[in-house]
Amino acid sequence: MATASEAPPKTESVKQKRVVFVVGGPGSGKGTQCDLISRDFGVPFFSTGDLIRSLIASGCPEGKQLQDIILQGQIIPSEVTVGLLQKAMASATSDTVLIDGFPRNTENRTVWQSQVGYDCELVLLFDCPEEVMVERLRRRAEGRADDNEETIKKRVQNFKSQMAPVLDYYRAIGKVTTISTDRPVDDIYSELSSLWRQRFAASPV
């Protein structure tokens, strides 16, 4: 497994897929809606955070190296993150996949394009007011140490600042669709599932 100074691992070639990036601040509801789309339309979705945690939990050498990177306070290289996504995509039989919480910044986006060789088909932006995201995260019962109000606000601001140039790029080429998520889950999903049928359901998956 590569570290920040090493070359990225080789990844197997995969058939080009229709990739939908799902982005939004912490607490914007991405995971819930991805679960519903996956359930109803048979579309797999992958989260970079879940993939990294799963690899670390496996205890394999690559996972231990990732854990060391995190424990040293370093950022996992984009090449490694994209490699994990490529491996996950290779296991998917569907021609369409959802990727939750990626890209997080411009480096993620540029590494994806250079390493995967093609871009996403759509960016779903889950737009939610900061105060709503903060309140949702405060109500979580996970007991996470980083779910205090001050840290939550920093996470939200980091998302906004790092994603701004990414969203500018994708808006300029007409790939961003915004979904308002400051409302009940069922209302959000009604709009999202309708959009999904229009864009993807008529195509073979």
UniProtKB/TrEMBL annotation:
InterPro entries (UniProt xref): Adenylat/UMP-CMP_kin, Adenylat_kinase_CS, P-loop_NTPase
Protein keywords: Kinase, Nucleotide-binding, Transferase
Matching CDD domains: ADK
Record-listed E.C. numbers: 2.7.4.3
Superkingdom field: Eukaryota
Gene Ontology molecular-function annotations: AMP kinase activity; ATP binding
Annotated signal sequence range: none
Listed transmembrane segments: none
Residue ranges of coiled coil: none
Database matches in PANTHER family: NUCLEOTIDE KINASE
UniProt record similarity statement: Belongs to the adenylate kinase family.
Name used for this protein in its record: adenylate kinase
Organism: Volvox carteri f. nagariensis
Gene responsible for this protein: adk2
